[in-house]
Amino acid sequence: MRFPEANLIVDHFDEPELDFCHDQRSHHPKDGLYLYGPHDGPRKLREVRIGVVGTPDGIGHFRSWSRQLLSGIPVPPPGPTEKKDRLHLADFAGLEETFGVTYDPDRLRALTVEFDAIERATRVQNMHEAVDAVARIYTERVHKFRRNEEGSIDVWMFVVPEIVYERCRPESRRTGLTLVAGKTPKKQRVRSPQSFLFMDERFDPRIEDVFDDIPDFRRHIKATLLSIAPSQILRESTLEPTAFLNSAGYPKRTTQDPATVAWNIATGLYYKTQDRPPWRLSNVREGVCYIGMVYKNLPNNRDNHVCCAAQMFLSEGDGVVFRGANGPWKTSEYEYHLNADAAKELLGTVIEAYRDLHSEPPKELFIHGQASFNDEEWQAFCQAAPKGTNVVGVRIRPTGGDAKLFRAGDYPVIRGTALRLDEKNAYLWTSGYVPQLDTYIGPETPNPLMVTILRSKHQKPEMRTVLADIMGLTKINYNSCNFNDGLPVTVRFAKMVGDILVMGSAREGGPQPFKYYI
């Protein structure tokens, strides 16, 4: 018996171009910044105001590393098994030469915290209480500075010793440590029943605020700094890996080469301290707005409510995060849906912000997510959008090996390859072999994204248009300086944004720039 063969279309998308200074373009952020400088960058050299919080050793490491950042850092010579020409690597020419900004390592606002205090706090029996105590050691120094000192800070850098990374994450086990009693029982993970609180008048209910948060140092810092300034968390071993050696005399951590570390941190530093991103997408259709929807369960919520948020990204590449209403949005194990009122309010807020920037509503509004849309939710989105705005719902999901595409040669499928199943569904390889770099950076045969056009208010866009947009959105991760990401920015940071929004200190306030969350 013969079965009919499916006629599948294999397509390819050229690498999106990026805009830099002097109306110049490049496919690679490093090439564009090195040759032309950031798009819409400062006309003259600007000094950024940096605040650093860390132990004396941590602040010393940051200052030493900063001097290298200012003078330039070359790529180390290739190893015995590496290619001679490693096109994915590039020398870092220096912060001033590359980005047009600078700072004086000796004139930083350096706020010192004591290592012994951090070490003691990490040993508190209750994990929630321990992480909260460590985070407060850092954030209270910032609060004290803001109360007592004049002058503003563009970005706060938190330099942390290895014990913070090892002991202050949700998966930390703290095996072998001698723990000390705190103010809450060791195994407590949620607030105590109200009846217990009234049994003991000495009990301070504010102590249990720690259970409204996930025990994660990074999330604590980001949530607290949302109302203050952008922040960056750096491990001491990232800045000076040779200071942390094992018994054989080798660095305990395997890190990226120093030039790549400099590219990534400098890109984030520029993005978080300037009005415009370091590059933007070329040839973007006018009047297009992209939204990434994210849902996150609220910790310690007795009604199992969920936080919903939207990340809006524009043609310029920058983004804004909007908090939606908390509510019973989880309808099944993997499905989340807003009711009509919440959907209207959230999308209405996004469109209002877009109108404030462009004086008119968007022509097209693409909602990217990993869940579907039910009828009530979708109708509310369409009603919230002006008559002339086409709202399009697109589901983007990573795959785990259910589809593979192979090509002849030494390298896997080329990045930008698409397998179109029909008018609504396609596989898109956003990771793969890059001819310009002559390499594929990945451990195994790349997996594609599964892209589905779910719904459209007006005319459904062509699948090729949707896939080209997604390719472009893989190029605007300003938290690093990579050639591309494997996920579009609308999906790439969804979990990170949600993790911060559900923290206790982040539950109030209006829209915030995306740079505060990464």
TrEMBL record:
CDD domains membership: Piwi_piwi-like_ProArk
InterPro entries: RNaseH-like_sf (IPR012337), RNaseH_sf (IPR036397)
A GO MF label: nucleic acid binding
The protein, known as: Piwi domain-containing protein
